[in-house]
Amino acid sequence: MVRKILTFKSGNFVFSRKFNEGKLSPSLLQSRILYETVRDLPILPELSTQIEEELIRRSIFGTAALEGNPLTEERVGQIISEPAEEQRKERAEKEIQNLKVAYDSSVRGRQVSESVFKLEEKHIRKIHSVITHDIEHKYNVPGQYRNHLIKVGDVEHGGVYTPPKVLVDIETLMKEFTTWINSEEILNLDSVIRAALTHYHFGLIHPFGDGNGRTARLIEALLMRLAGMKYVPIMLSNFYYRNMDDYFWAFSKARKGKENDVTPFVGFVLKGVVESLNEIKGRIIFFIRKFALRDYYSFLRTEKKITQRQHDFLITLLEKLTPFALGDLFNVSPFNVLYRNVSERTARRDLKKLCDEKLLYIEERRYHLNLRALE
After folding, report:
1. Closest-CA residue to 369 (of 297, 295, 282, 309)
2. pTM
3. Residues 221-241 pLDDT 10s
4. pLDDT of residue 41
5. N or C: which end of the chain has fewer CB within 10 A?
6. Which domains can be identified in the chain, with CATH numbers?
7. DSSP count for the chain of H helices, then E strands
């Protein structure tokens, strides 16, 4: 469960897979059930691509923001949608460009491995090289381990931690790290736990002069993706960003805990997995509801239970999904296109009809589309 390595100048370093199984089992079971549910939900390829595009944008924003990148999510979205040949000199923007390349080459579109993926130092160095490419830093060389003292963390999140200090120790520990993470003991664990342990111990070693956090989160995502998980691997960075304090505290609690118990960090990762799976399940079900409702409206029109105008109005609402008042039908686009030649009396009659059919409902004096009309 615990493997101790004596380093040259940094004392004992511990690799630990010691965690409270009873405490983590409910989250682990929940994540497995949720993932089976998500995997079995039907979704069109173009919608899957659309979801993944948004998740990657959020992930790149989150993992960069965790390290102090000041750009907004909107600006991040603009940068990653620009052609690759449009190179930028500003550090913050270059970081985003590099992360997009790293996600595209390391995680996005990766096919599931036929056998368990074994993480090697060359994979780690490559990811780090891409992340820190062409970014000036006094003590960082892309893909090269550091040979200087660094400090990690702050007092507000559990104190300052000093990782191994010299190159010879880092080289030793990275070899031991990849051997351990690829050992039968770790390969036999659930893929999420293996990825979390990889994230945590890489963070403890902190082998590079810069970009360690971004590299750790990308490695974690890569391991989960190659183990067969969709969506979640690229959602976790945003979860960590939205729960930044808890993220840093989870690391500190595991590092300072008794008997090398890594439950705090692994438990936090599992919490992120469960939350991410619930979110993606809700989004896919929402898309399925929209397709089903679209067919249902067509059926009602064919059966002459609603008029063509009412049908077109419902389709418009299905795309817009915003509450509205009677007056909006005449004053707000695109409703006013359908109702420009319609009297207020007829419009009221349409709304009453759609409410009677339970296709609309009224809440706080505004009309809402009933997305659960088929239940």
Report:
1. 297
2. 0.87
3. 999 999 888 889 999 999 999
4. 84
5. C
6. 2-281 (1.10.3290.10), 306-369 (1.10.10.10)
7. 16, 6
